[in-house]
Description:
Blueprint: E1 2-3, E2 12-15, E3 18-28, E4 36-43, E5 49-55, E6 59-62, E7 65-76, E8 79-84, E9 90-93, E10 109-115, E11 120-125, E12 129-137, E13 150-155, E14 160-164, E15 172-176, E16 181-185
Antiparallel strand pairs: 1-6, 2-3, 2-6, 3-4, 4-5, 7-8, 7-10, 8-9, 10-11, 12-13, 12-15, 13-14, 15-16
Amino acid sequence: xxxxxxxxxxxxxxxxxxxxSVVEFQHVKPGKGPAFVRTKLKSVRTGKVVDNxxxxxxxxxxxxxxxxxxxxxYKDDMGYNFMDNETFEQVSIxxxxxxxxxxxxxxxxxxxxxxxxxxxxxxxxxxxxVEVTVTYTEPGIKGDTATNASKPATIDTGATVQVPLFINQxxxxxxxxxxxxxxxxxx
Length: 187
């Protein structure tokens, strides 16, 4: 058991029969009345963000959640199969637990979030940016537009993203996995 004095960003606590990660917190000591801690908590399972206020000294239950690197192997009818890089143990993860499954490619290393006490997989996060190859896009014509215009491009994972007109087929580009958007051309 911990108290509100132990609250910090990234701490995972058990709250309302779910696991929540502390996104923001603020210790408040008003001139009149008892101190309290104002928090913004994000559900580890659903991603829902809630605001909550704890009174100072309130007991909170922390959860042991670890992030381990796993390598993506393949997808089958059971889900997405990953391998632990240290123990070579293989696990299958459902698509709804992966933050951007459309950008996964063979051999990619991701972080798998595991609740250690229950040996339960809570989620899988891809790196913030991934490098992919454009497999198909229409050629851009110079002078098409005077503003920032984009066109659809199919990448090697099968997903479609919007790219600037100057991107051609077989070029390597960097994608932001949180937004699913083009970042830059890779040299």
